[in-house]
Design a protein that fits this description.
Layout (H helix, E strand, L loop, with lengths): L10 E12 L2 E12 L3 E6 L5 H8 L7 E6 L2 E2 L5 H7 E4 L10 H11 L6 H10 L15 H13 L5 E5 L7 H18 L2 E5 L3 H7 L2 E6 L2 E7 H5 L3
Parallel strand pairs: 3-8, 3-9, 6-7, 7-8
Antiparallel strand pairs: 1-2, 1-4, 4-5, 9-10
Helix pairs in contact: 3-5, 5-6
Length: about 230
Amino acid sequence: MNLAPTQDSAVILRVENLGYESDGKTILKDISFDLSRGEHLAIVGSSGSGKSTLLRLLNRLLEPSRGTVYFGGQDYKEIPPRELRRKIGLILQQPYLFPGMVADNLRFGPAQRGETISDEAIAELLANVDLPDFAARDVANLSGGEAQRVSIARTLANSPEILLMDEPTSSLDEESRQQVEKLVCGIAQRQELTFIIVTHDMEQAGRLADKALVLEQGRIQRYGKVEEILHVK
């Protein structure tokens, strides 16, 4: 399931000297890397190395203490946070869904922009995550794997250009993990979607990504092609 980068080499995301401090403690320091449109990056490292913090900085759920991020060549501080988070969507380890029907969850993001998603568009989004006929399903009755796939569909409803995923399969059983991995690969190929995944699973990083970034104690230790950095095939 390894994915090759697209032929478009235009840089969609450039991170320059990004740093973050909290309560006088340095969490991240001198983080710099870039990602071309259609590329897939795995961020790995030990617990507490700053992986999840980095993801939250990338769509301004946290504000950097220094440095910045350029999205499509524009300093992301010039982009309204709500618009930025639509373009750079985040999927968390534990899917958070609003009470009610699946369709209501998918409609939520566009509704915040005054847009309405048709029933046909809802059906297409759910088909893309292998959940046909789930529109009227109550989210309280979903399995963990189903809830994560609805979470992915809800993020895709905003038409993001970059997908950030924070350990999206770590709480799932093996069958659900494989389903979500297959889903992510399929969507990335069909839509030429750029994504960044935080994972503790080196084999998963090798299956999903073409680049890898190793964080330790808030600093980049290694960054490059996934097979060279993680020694996976």
